[in-house]
Amino acid sequence: MDYIEENINSKEDEKSDDLNTTRANLRIIDTDLDSQFPPKLDNKENTIRKKKLVDKLNLINFKGQTIRVDFSHKKDGRIISFDVLPQLCFGKYLSCLWNTPPDIHLIKKTYLFQNIIIAEGETVLTVNASLRALNQKGICLTLPDKSIQKSSRRARRFTCDSLNVNLMQNGIVFPGSLMDFSAYSFRVEIHSSLKEACHWLNTKDNINLIIIKGSETLFSIDCSVIKRDTSSRKKTLILKPLKSNIQRFCPQEYRSKRLKLSPTPHIIFYHPFTDKLVNLKVIDLSGSGISVEDDEKNSVLMPGMIIPEVSINLANALKFKCKAQVVYRKVNEDEGSTHIVQCGITFLDMDCNDHMRLLSLLHQAENPNLHICNEVDLDELWKFFFESGFIYPHKYKSIQENKKKIRKTYERLYTTNSNVSRYFTWQKKGVIQGHLSMLRFYENTWLIHHLAALPSNQRLVGIEILKQIGAFTYDSHRLFSSHMDYLICYFRPENKFSNHFFGGIQKNIQNPKACSIDTFAYLYYRKHKKKDPNLPEQWEFIKSTHHDLIELYNFYEQLAGGLMLQALDLLPDEEMVERHSLSNEYQKINMKRQRKIYSLKKDGLLKAVFMANFSDFAMNLSDLTNSVSVFVLESEDVDPSIIYSSISQVAQKYEQKTFPVLIFPLPYASKQSINYEREYNLWALNMEYTDDYFQNFNLMI
Q1: What element of type H or E holds 102?
Q2: Cis-peptide into 263, omega within 30 deg
Q3: 352 near 476, Cβ under 8 Å?
């Protein structure tokens, strides 16, 4: 709808302002907007017959909406407008009720009825009716046989129900309401309570517009002021966004692959500004976002707009809900010179199981051999573990006594939907040829393990699986619900493939805050029937404090400066020790995951920190999820017997007779002649550096 700005100067007009015909009831129209926003008016006119007009009026009545009646001033022809509610119409006459009753006496004395205006999106229908009756309750009109409908190529304006906004300029906040908007502009009314502040508004400078609904911010963007209404009763601004795109995340070279699916998906959501249902066709889709086709004349998407809930609908059979944000809007021309509006939308958050199912669909569409968390025959999985050499004789010996417990653990992991477990398989003709799994084992860290492939096709399948998990984690890590700030992986240095791939990436990146490797001594601790001797009098083994973790952090930063403490959730966070959310996620699938952190001190001085992890046996087949990690700060002052005595105090909390112990740093174990069985490298990747990872990925394969 167009906007006309009215200025009331005469005494008669001042008197009319005292009526109930306040400017709140009037339509303010800005005719200058045509020159501000392309494309321009098409000015096409069509005539519609009375029968079609009646159908439109009855639909408006059914929806409880209003139309506009215009009156012209008898002296100068100026227009005032009122919103009215059309009643049931049969064709000859139309009765309407005032939305807000005006002063009828003054209208009859000063104004003449002009016409009816019906706005329908980008079209305006002008009905040159004649006045039949006018009173305090409403107005009765005689309808013409034909009416004029004008169309415009300008984007439709949508009315809002007084959505709250804040306008920010140079340190001053101007609260107000969003009255209506289009894809190109916003009409904002500043609250009249700030009369003196309105004089501080500089219309020549840019303004940051923030649109708020309840406690949630829906939109924020810098705008220029196109027009300002100088009425004394309210301040109205027409604002134009300065950007046609936003940068939600840091730009990266590696991008998600966008796929075109058939049948074509749609997105369905309630528009955050109007609460009206919107249904748009998806052009392409990836695990991190979508692009959609918006209607040029009825465009509803603006870059920067946050949509609290979007449903991605695939043939009405699969639906994925998410929180999303519009990041760009561009107008393209097809071969017929028709404008196509393409809008990009990025996912801000999504239920992690929904996201997993979406990625499974996309990965299958790209490569039918790759599967994410599909139904797996567990007998076939165990057969694969043995045939691939992943479970070799020495490893099987360490788990053989508890094989029933292990089978039960894997039944829960592979048959129950959870937020803490993901597995990937490469299958050909139903036969598993490659496998990799992940556990969310620390607050914001996922552990990659069980990477294996059949010897006949080991390198190819292994690379395909690693590509799959790379794409999966890239699409997942930005979603808060995934809690995927870091990836970690334990591997033995003599494992050629892992050392070449993970070790090679770490060496090439050459940034310990992006990717790091720390080496542990690995040994099995066996419970004794007799407890180890108690600690000497000056020693104590107690629960760690916030200050202890600060000391551990300072020690590690000076020694290695990598990602180990961040990834293992050992940063000195005051709330870290008491976290229970991750344990609760495991409890939902009847599994155990707990952690205790202790400090070994001599005369009150910190000598070592112990992290004891408790989980179902062999959740990780090397049982690294059911182990004690020891971080020795004072290598020269801690005898191995003190370490063993401390471990014995923790050992009583473990159900099994033996459990792994990891000791860091490795030189301490070597110098103290600790009889450890092997070494394990802890590889850690900060997901903020995915570009560095993927740039080196191809070099390693």
Answers
A1: none
A2: yes
A3: yes
Both 139 and 171 in one domain: the answer is no
Q: Which residues touch 13 (CB under 8 Å, ≥6 apart)?
A: none
Cβ atoms within 10 Å, residue 374: 13
Residue 543 pLDDT exceeds 50: yes
Phi-psi region of 83 (alpha: psi -120 to 50; beta: other; left: phi over 0): beta
Average pLDDT rounded to a whole number, residues 653-676: 93
Quote the longest CA-to-CA distance of the chain: 109
DSSP letters along 477-544, please?
A: TTSGGG--SEEEEEE-TT-HHHIIIIIHHHHHH--TTTEEEEEEEEEEEE--SSPPPPPPTTEEEEE-
Distance CA 44, CA 584 (A): 64
* pLDDT on residue 459: 78
Is 40 strand, coil or helix? coil
Q: Distance between CA 622 and CA 520 in Å, rounded?
A: 14
DSSP state of 429: T
Q: What is the DSSP letter of 272?
A: T
> Which tens digit of pLDDT belongs to each residue from 105-125?
888 999 999 999 998 766 788
DSSP-assigned states of every residue in 208-262: EEEEEETTEEEEEEEEEEEEEE--SS-EEEEEEES-SB---S---S--PPPB--S
We report the CATH number of the domain holding residue 140 as 2.30.110
CA distance 162 to 208: 18
**pLDDT at residue 338 greater than cutoff 70:** no
Q: Which residues contact 58 (CB under 8 A, 6 or more apart)?
A: 88, 89
**What would the mean pLDDT of 22-49 be, rounded to a whole number?**
47
What number of residues does the chain have? 701
Same domain for 428 and 383 = yes
Amino acid at 16: S
Please tell me the distance from the alpha carbon of residue 9 to that of residue 5, in angstroms, as a whole number: 13
Judgement on whether residues 184 and 286 belong to the same structural domain of the protein: no
Cα 297 from chain centre:
28
Question: Whole-angstrom Cα distance, residue 460 to residue 450?
Answer: 17
Instruction: Tell me whether residue 2 is in a domain.
Output: no
- pLDDT-derived band of residue 29, with 50, 70 and 90 as boundaries? very low
> Of 318, 350, 382, which residue sits at a domain end?
350
Q: What are phi and psi of 492, to 5 degrees?
A: -85, 140
As a whole number of angstroms, the distance between CA 221 and CA 241 comes to: 7
Number of structural domains in the chain:
5
Q: What integer is the mean pLDDT of 518-527?
A: 94
pTM exceeding the 0.85 threshold for the entire prediction: no
Buried b (16+ CB within 10 A) or exposed e, 117-126: bbbeebebbb
Three-state DSSP state, 657: coil
Domain holding 195, by residue range, is 158-241
Q: Which residue has the tokens 């907007």?
A: 33
Residues 479 and 485: their CA atoms lie apart, in Å, by 10
CB within 8 Å of 403: residues ≥ 6 apart:
none
Secondary structure class of 433 (helix, strand, coil): strand
- The answer to whether the beta carbons of residues 352 and 482 sit under 8 Å apart is yes
pLDDT at 594 over 90: yes
Phi (first) and psi of residue 129, to 5 degrees: -80, 170
